[in-house]
Amino acid sequence: MARLKPSQVEGAFSIATLHSLGSQLLTYIRSNRGAIVNYGKRYTDAQAAMLARATIPAVLTAWSSWSRQAARMALEQQDT
Known about the structure:
By secondary structure, the chain is mainly α. It has 2 helices and no strands. It folds into 2 domains: 1-36; 38-80. 72% of the residues lie in helices and 0% in strands. It is rod-shaped and about 90 Å long. The termini are far apart. The model has no long low-confidence stretch (mean pLDDT 81).
């Protein structure tokens, strides 16, 4: 096996074979671009959605508190 060229060693690929496989892979990706899931984008979108789900209740709670304070201040102004 020491005398064999790298392309003749079992499991080794020639440059032409690698080029052919690479071309086929590129063709597949281009042909199926719309069906291939972008997991990076999916993860980022999920993170943004989780942030929004966590933020909305906090904002609503704060708004409710502010509304009560505004109502109280309005009543106090009315009494004077």
